[in-house]
User: Which sequence fits this backbone?
């Protein structure tokens, strides 16, 4: 069986998203993880040892990694993504890059333009929520017209990992020069990708946006130093958007805590709700499009087996490997990443200027 030899760039200092890539490659029988590289000397070797990764090459440079692989996962800070994508593709390697795609739309255009001249290479962005079984069922119902006109789509996404103002250090994610926006980009990119993925086929594209951002923990201790410095991007974002059909989107993105991670869609034909704690279940309350609700009791629908499958990064990696070996089109490509980055930039512009921005 033909296998794609994989290398990972960046093993991480804190949450280490590279672990999800490792697990996804290990679950795909046509992928083989063979090499690691981290810019901090010794970190990749220590990281591999802690995770029991044996027979894996610890590389001292990018070029050494490129010499051993067919494809690469980029798991590094946002401000390094574009240069690394281009460098990887210059070496003739396929690439998955973690989200968000870039720190700005203008920066992100460079890699898209470069990729246009290398159609033989597969390049994906890590929008890894589409494989959630409940999302697949939502997509099926929407595409079949069961909801008809969609009125509203509401989402909450984030996490409490850095809610501690004294116990969590000043990571790159909290610095605008390395991250771009904070919670807006980190979690907002997923919500924008999901809303557009589910709704644009029936409701059209996003036409206008507005946003409010706030930094609540304004300084943190610098890593490796006995001093504090400013947090320069947002801890939380509340943003809205409107689609061509009139559908209204409302999102809360927070890196200092959300009570649940959910999506709710309401339309002519009823309502659908899911949360990521129950990915194999969808709550629905349907009605006749020309009538009213006969009950206010939601039905819990178990997801059909044919819509289940590998979730998260496993689904993303499956798409990646199939695109490389089978020539299947990759939907989450660099142009997709650039489009979502454009919407994020316009949301930041809205927050900065205090006005609705037309796209």
Assistant:
């Amino acid at each position: 069986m033909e296998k794609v030899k994989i290398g990972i760039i960046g093993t991480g200092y804190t949450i280490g998203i590279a672990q999800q890539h490792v697990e996804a490659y290990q679950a795909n029988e046509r992928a083989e993880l063979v090499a690691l590289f981290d810019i901090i000397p010794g970190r990749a070797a220590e990281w591999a040892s802690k995770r029991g990764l044996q027979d894996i090459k610890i590389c001292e440079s990018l070029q050494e990694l490129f010499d051993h692989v067919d494809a690469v996962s980029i798991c590094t800070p946002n401000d390094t993504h574009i240069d690394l994508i281009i460098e990887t593709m210059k070496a003739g390697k396929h690439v998955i890059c973690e989200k968000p795609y870039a720190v700005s739309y203008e920066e992100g255009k460079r890699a898209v333009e470069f990729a246009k001249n290398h159609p033989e290479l597969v390049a994906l962005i890590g929008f890894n929520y589409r494989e959630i079984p409940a999302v697949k069922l939502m997509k099926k119902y929407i595409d079949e017209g069961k909801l008809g006109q969609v009125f509203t789509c509401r989402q909450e996404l984030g996490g409490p990992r850095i809610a501690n103002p004294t116990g969590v250090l000043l990571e790159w994610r909290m610095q605008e020069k390395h991250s771009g926006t904070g919670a807006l980009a980190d979690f907002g990119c997923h919500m924008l990708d999901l809303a557009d993925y589910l709704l644009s086929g029936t409701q059209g594209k996003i036409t206008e946006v507005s946003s409010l951002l706030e930094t609540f923990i304004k300084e943190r201790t610098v890593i490796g130093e006995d001093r504090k410095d400013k947090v320069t991007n947002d801890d939380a974002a509340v943003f809205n958007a409107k689609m061509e059909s009139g559908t209204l989107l409302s999102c809360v993105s927070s890196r200092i805590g959300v009570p649940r991670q959910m999506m709710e869609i309401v339309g002519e034909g009823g309502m659908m709700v899911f949360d990521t704690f129950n990915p194999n279940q969808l709550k629905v309350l349907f009605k006749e499009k020309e009538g009213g609700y006969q009950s206010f009791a939601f039905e819990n629908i178990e997801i059909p087996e044919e819509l289940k499958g590998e979730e998260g990064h496993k689904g993303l990696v499956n798409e990646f490997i199939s695109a490389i070996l089978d020539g299947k089109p990759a939907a989450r490509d660099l142009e997709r990443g650039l489009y979502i980055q454009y919407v994020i930039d316009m949301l930041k512009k809205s927050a900065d200027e205090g006005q609705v921005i037309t796209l």
User: Anything to note?
Assistant: Residues 135 and 274 are 8 Å apart (CA to CA). The mean pLDDT is 96.
